[in-house]
Amino acid sequence: MTDKLTVVITDTSCFIILEKLQALHLLPQLFGNIITTPEIAAEYGNPLPDWVNIQTVTNTELQQQLAQQVDPGEASAIALAAEIDCDYLLTDDKDARKLAAKRGIAIKGSGGVLLLAKELGAIPLLKPYLEKMQQTNFRISSQLIEALLRDAGE
């Protein structure tokens, strides 16, 4: 589907919502290298699939600075994205997205991941996933849902 060269670092939220949607399997279909941190693996609480690479942040000073503004998992993901060459940070947290954007890190949320899955033919329709997402405790605005469906041509 893709050239499999895309490197992403994912936060806990993406793992959790995709698992709830029974869509976690989409990540390795869409991205060539899925990386997370030990902090996120611990936050997630369940064993991660074998295709997830766990990498420790080396710039712990930056990680500690970021942890004053976001939770430890998000801080580790942003710090790792700042130190390795990645295409996207996958996170849904508003504060984490702002911090990452300030550092020039490209971001995709779970909705963006599902839209990419639709665009690349990994899923036939986006709407059923968004409807199921709304039935969880995941917060997604009706404006974002409308925008995603419009971008998906649905």
UniProtKB/TrEMBL annotation:
Pfam families membership: DUF3368
Residue ranges the record marks as coiled coil: none
Matching CDD domains: PIN_VapC-like
Classification via InterPro entries: PIN-like_dom_sf (IPR029060), PIN-like_prokaryotic (IPR021799)
The protein's name in its UniProt record: DUF3368 domain-containing protein
Annotated organism of origin: Mucilaginibacter pedocola
